[in-house]
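User: What would this chain look like folded?
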Amino acid sequence: MAVVTQFVVVREGVEKMTFTSKKEADAYDKMLDIADNLIPFLTDAALELPEPELEKLAFYLAEHKDDLGLLLKGAPLKKPVKTKKSAKVTAAE
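Assistant: Here's the prediction, encoded as C-alpha cells.
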C-alpha cells in the first residue's frame, strides 16, 4: 500500500485545489490572496463590469502576476501569455 501526501487549499471551508507539493499549494494560495486583493482595486475602476466578470479579471491578473509586473515596469512581454484552459477554476475561488 502506498502513502500519498496531499496538500489541500481550502478557502472559507471549501476545498479549492489539491496538490502533491507544499510549494505548489502555497503558490496557489498566494495567487488566490492576490486575486482577493485585486477585486476591491478593480471595483474602484470605472469598468462597470458585473461581479463575476470582475472576479474573473482579478483571477486572471493574479494568475499572470509576473507578466503583469513586467508590463507595469514598461518592459515588453518576452513570450505570449497562455491561459490554462484545462484548469477551470472560477474567479470566486
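The radius of gyration is 15 Å. If you want, I can go into more detail on any region.
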